[in-house]
User: What shape does this take?
Amino acid sequence: MIALLENLHIALPEMIVLATACLALLADLFIRHRYKDISFVIACIGLLLAICINALYIGGFKALILNGLYISDDVSHLMKIFIYITVLLSFIYARQYIDERKMPGGDYYVLGLFSTLGMMILVSAHSLVTIYLGLELMSLPLYAMTAIRRTNSDASEAAIKYFVMGAIASGMLLYGMSLIYGATGKLNLLEIANVLAVNGQQQTTLLTFALVFILAGVGFKLAAVPFHMWVPDVYQGAPSSVTLFISTAPKIAALGMLFRLLNISLIDITVQWQQILLVMSILSTGLGNLLAVVQSNIKRLLAYSAIAHIGYALFGVLAASPAGYSAALYYIVVYALMSAAAFGLIVLMSSQGMEIDAVEDLKGLNKRSPWLAFMMLLVMFSMAGVPPTVGFFAKLLVLKALVDVQLTWVAVLGLLFTVIGAYYYIHIVKTMYFDTAQTNEPIVINRSNGLDYSLNCLALLFLGLFPGALVSLCTNAFTN
Assistant: This one.
């Protein structure tokens, strides 16, 4: 028992988030009538404390605890920090939106914290059992959050679609894991890799079947083509505050799960999974960008944009090299910040009972609020990959990783789809700056929200002008 609990302090961030979720739940039950925002305050304090603890762990030694179920390394610490940051931004942006619509705010924050705990377990998982437990702990609160606005039929429909499709994907992933266990007799990821290194050639057919099911399950969580069908409907139907949450941190966790499965346990069958990822990544970047061009609903447009961005992140994994993995990690954390900023504007502008749904709702934003329009311009330029924003360096790194492993033709396709994608981002900028506003009423946003949003957007410019620190952290995570 003592050996099992040795080095348990490494899992301190998980304990903090779990304790924060439980405290927020109890406070919402017993103190809410006296302190309306008590759950929000507790959630923010817990997340800030977890950020500090994880930041201290970066650069430390790799460690396996709990009999090999949990791994502590720089990859997990870096992913967790950006998970906390994007969840914190989601809570801050959503606060006013939730209050105005009389949504159960305590439920939103508590469910968000439990989902965050699942994401943390997922990126530190070192066993098939831990991966599945983390995945379900992340997913189940998301289904409930989607239906949190019970009087809205669109939200209920989105929640049912999300739940049914998610259950099917989880079943496929679990079936793939059971085939891996049947082929190797092991659950620990490193032990699976060792068995495959010795006996993998004898189980080629079984492993190929397992790989297909595993990548189908992970592809759903990442929203990669052809497992993307739920994304536009869920993004559009869910309340904007929930769409903001779903579009950011869970993407980091899903890519972390992919890293663990492919880079540790299935590294000896790299050629097989590269072939599947090649198709998924090209289709995601191609279809995502092409279908986004014809969207008039801004949440559906950003949903297809998310599918395209996941394709670019998969390009890094496809390279199957330390440079490729670090580029994919860099891309996904940068995308989470961009997505938080894009949906953050939608949530902050959806005030006084008005919902921002169509691209036309942003008409003349520059006249109504020049600063917000400029911030959104930075976000759109970053998503399009325009220098000097951080999106340019993110795309550059993943395409360079492809060229370095002689996949130049894939990099050329990715570059072509980037040009196509730039069209609908620039169309949003044109709508904000050159179209006539439907109303000249100025946009009023809470000062603290405006400051947080400005920092979020300016970070995209700062990281683009000074990319070295974050690039080094991502590179060291896969080379140490």
User: Anything to note?
Assistant: The chain has one domain: 2-479. The first strand starts at residue 63 and ends at 65. Residues 106 and 357 are 25 Å apart (CA to CA).
